Amino acid sequence: MCSSSSHNSPGPIVTMNCVVPLNSVIYGSLNRGFRRSFSSYGSLAQRFFSQVASLTNRYENVGVRGKEGVGKSLGFQPFSEHGKRAKALAAHRKKTTANLNISASKDVDMITSSEQLVGEGSKDVKLGSNISISPVKNDNQNSEVHGKQKQHSRSKKNEVHKVAANASEEAVEANGPQSSSQAKTPNAGKRGKNSTQALEKSSVGKTHVEVLDSSASRKAQLNEKNGNSCRKVKSIKAGNKSTNKQNSQERGKLNNQGPKALKELYSPLVKSVVVVESVTKAKVIQGYLGDMYEVLPSHGHVRDLAARSGSVRPDDDFSMVWEVPSAAWTHLKSIKVALSGAKNLILASDPDREGEAIAWHIIEMLQQQDALREDINIARVVFHEITESSIKSALEAPREIDVNLVHAYLARRALEYLIGFNISPLLWKKLPGCPSAGRVQSAVLALICDRELEIDEFKPQEYWSIEVKMNQYGPGSLVNGFSFPAHLMQYDSKKLNQYSISSVTEAKEIERKFSSVKFKVVSSKRNKMRKNPPTPYITSTLLQDAANKLHFTATYTMKLAQKLYEGVQLSDSKAAGLITYIRTDGLHMSDEAVKDIRALVIERYGQELASEHGPKYFKKAKNAQEAHEAIRPTDIQRLPSMLDGVLDEDSMKLYTLIWSRTVACQMEPAIIEQMLLDVGNDDESIILRSACSRVEFLGYQAIFEDVEVEAIRSKEKEENDRNEAVGILSLLKCGDPLWLGEVELKQHFTQPSSRYSEASLVKKLEELGIGRPSTYASTLKVLQDRNYVNVKSRVLHPEFRGRMVSAFLCHHFSEVTDYSFTADMETELDNVSAGLTEWKGLLRDYWTRFSSYCDRANSIHIHQVEKMLEKKFGASLFDSLPDKSRTCPSCMEGTLIFKVSRYGAGYFIGCDQHPKCKYIAKTLYGDDDEEEVAPQKDNIEEPKVLGINPGSTEKVLLKNGPYGFYVQLGEDRKGYSPKRTSVSHIKDVESFTIEDALELLRYPVILGNHPKDGQPVVLRLAKLGFSIKHRSSNAPVPKNVKPKEITLEKALKLLSSKDVRRCGRPKNKPKVEEAARAM
């Protein structure tokens, strides 16, 4: 709730008893029935937002600023004139709302900070009817409204929504998509003039912070014309998570109004600005579209939740505080400058909820910067592959922002923030050295730790197997016959299982009995099996195959795949994206793509290997969305050999893997012939079995014989070494005698479940429905960066720190680590994306439970945590002691227990008589005593060519020296010293790419000259990150600050901080030699 002494005089704002930061703006979404009284902004609003009366939509998902209660999209309505239609609609609405006896009039103010940051200017921004601004209200009014709200009956509420819905449909039918303004009240214009405020804007290089009050149930006061009474439409219940069928259909009907008004944006008639996410993508698309389009990158998100406590405010109906990084201002400025002469703004970020959110953020920021003129038309386009045809097709089918995807993004972001910023401080206090927890990462960590616990508690069981060799002729025969292996299947007329022979005594008894048995062929069976082709790749299966067959990490695979998706420069100087969108769980492919693949199969392998109808693939994994196509080459005729010299070695392997899998999925199944031969005694109480198989029809396996898959042939080609064995067994008939040859008794022990590899963990996550295609790789990376998990020989080992965190969370925050809960939460977020769940209700329902967990955990004493962990891991902790005794060897009175350092320095096993006895048996680790770091892999080919520097013809090399790995620009030659940069701080050197190398080689960078002495201020690489150097002063750059965000102003602040270190001899201090002479 906000309060201010004056509507017209700006001053400091107090929100939730906290002063809002400088240069901040509080945005709010008003409840149904409120009208925005900023008349001067009307024309701008009509161009952006869905034109539906705010009373019509029961499921108003407030929280997206400027959203007026429409289901799926922030309706941008370009290419329209609105003046006459708006007046007609206003009159119609006035008549409609009069029947409801509800008059929506309220003074609404935008409150801005009166203080400005240095170097910032201010500029008035006109605000209109559709901008969502927080009203200024006092507590007395709120309590009065709240009391009256409860008096409304359910029947009255239904009547209100029914009449409002009918009014909306009539208005839309009569006026088209221009029907968003509400009925005017007599004093609306006057109030609009009085309440318009100046919006302060940050200049490039400053951090902008704002509060987005996205409340769906904020209490709003509805005044009648005479101002003597107030009524309010009853709000949606907080826990309402799904819509009823009737209103879902009604909302879908309303949503279809928007796209009809959008015109095709290709062929170009006027200048347009297209915004994508990356520089590479922008360059490729620019080549397709020509000079009438200016394609600019946003470099990802232009703003995010402020990285501090209080950025999501549950008590203020989940209002959010957004922060704009300084680097984002540069990108926004470029877009703003480009819009000065453009007529269209086209938002072409990725086709997922993150891409939708980026588009929404950009519009929000440009509106605040007053960069959107009244004649600029805005549209959202999506494409799943970066080719000329797909880009132009997307421009021919523009749509609106999907508000449900934005809501899902807001819900996910708020959930992760609430979990992270509430659990992490508890971990710092209760478990020192454990930096963070998260919604998905904690569930994944629990999976890894549960498997480790399963391994610790596993008890092996002994069992034996018997293998024999059967000969065609006896030992005295002069004819050399054939022999074949067989294994015991049945003994004493009982079928054996794995544990039937449990000791060597039993095994030797069976061997002794074999010596007196005459064997013959009991039965011979042949059957044929169809082995279906593999499904096309989705994100999870691509990560699994890349790990199993190419030994790539998940992070490295996604990095290579992203490069293939965004596009490369081909040999004919044209740029193109090589594969479709990489974050997908859909198995389907377009009909055109399937047609092209089948044509290639017929051309290269023949008609008999092409699938007759083409298999239809459907995803069976939990929570599959199938929003995008499977991962496939954008042009199947682009063979891997055509990219020789264009792609580096690893990118070529990954492309070949995708190309071969895509071709194989549209080929005929392979036919496998299997031979089963049973050998036994006369009464068949003993049965030995021999089995072998061979490929009768190659089918899709013919792809692995193709020279195009040479890069992965050894990994893909299936062996058919047993063809000869099938031929031998087929010669035998029932009743043919056989002689016993060598008998081998094999001892075995049951093995525990193996630890997860990245591939098997991704498969498990997909089965359980935990995470999404876009989060698999990043989650695994976070666990490794936090030192919760260590990778050894491509297997994930949980560190003791990670096991403690998982045990603590399982004990006090069971929902966070519960697999089914995490999967169900993913389902709920998907329902929000589909418009089936109200996102505020989802947050409210979760926060009610989660906050109680936090309160209970916060009251726990650290000694209780110590006892819980000791009980959980006592066996492994104390078994590692030399004599395994719990008695203190120092005082002989105390007992050794697990302890957390008093000052949070680490963990140790010490005497419980402390401080009387200060004996420490074992120190586990502390903040300064880092855990053992996995040794660097030294199997990198020396030197490894990462690629070619685009600015020259020099190679970029990855080399290994006496001090670790480093990158080098150019080859060694006499009289030339190439530029080198150490990368010894990077754990996974195999995932290092040409882009990473070029980014590091650009340093050191001169940021500018120091204003005091004119000497350069340099941003350079240090042993542990980056540092700022000025003369003899060095200031470390915080780890959470990206080097691209460092400006001269920030560097000067770091140089004036207390962390500055000075190197070299202090001024006026004599040198060592001079000091020695003086002595």
Structural class, by secondary structure, is alpha+beta
Output mean pLDDT: 73
- The DSSP helix count reads 30
Strand order of the largest sheet: 17-18-24-23-20-25
Instruction: Estimate the global geometry from the Cα principal axes.
Output: globular
Quaternary organisation: single chain
Percentage of helical residues?
25-40%
Radius of gyration using CA atoms only: 35 Å
Instruction: State the total count of DSSP E strands.
Output: 39
In total, the number of domains comes to 8
How would a crystallographer describe the biggest sheet?
Answer: 6 strands, antiparallel, barrel
How much of the sequence lies in strands comes to 15-25%
* N-to-C CA distance: 73 Å
The low-pLDDT segments are: 1-90, 92-208, 213-260, 715-720, 926-941, 1069-1079
Protein name: DNA topoisomerase
Family: Belongs to the type IA topoisomerase family.
Keywords: DNA-binding, Isomerase, Magnesium, Metal-binding, Topoisomerase, Zinc, Zinc-finger
Catalytic activity: ATP-independent breakage of single-stranded DNA, followed by passage and rejoining
Q: Could you give a short description of this structure?
A:
The chain is α+β, with helices and mostly antiparallel strands and 1079 residues long.
Describe the structure.
With 1079 residues, this protein is an alpha+beta fold. The protein folds into 8 domains: 1-255, no CATH class; 262-301 and 326-399, Rossmann fold, CATH 3.40.50; 415-458 and 757-858, Orthogonal Bundle (Topoisomerase I, domain 2); 462-532 and 672-749, Topoisomerase I, domain 3 (Distorted Sandwich); 545-667, Topoisomerase I, domain 4 (Orthogonal Bundle); 862-926, no CATH class; 944-1001, no CATH class; 1005-1062, no CATH class. Helices cover 34% and strands 18% of the residues. It is built from 30 helices and 39 strands. The strands form 11 sheets. The chain has a 6-stranded antiparallel β-barrel with strand order 17-18-24-23-20-25. Strand 21 (568-569) and strand 22 (575-576) form a beta hairpin. Helix 13 crosses helix 22 (776-785). The radius of gyration is 35 Å and the shape is globular. 41% of the residues are buried.
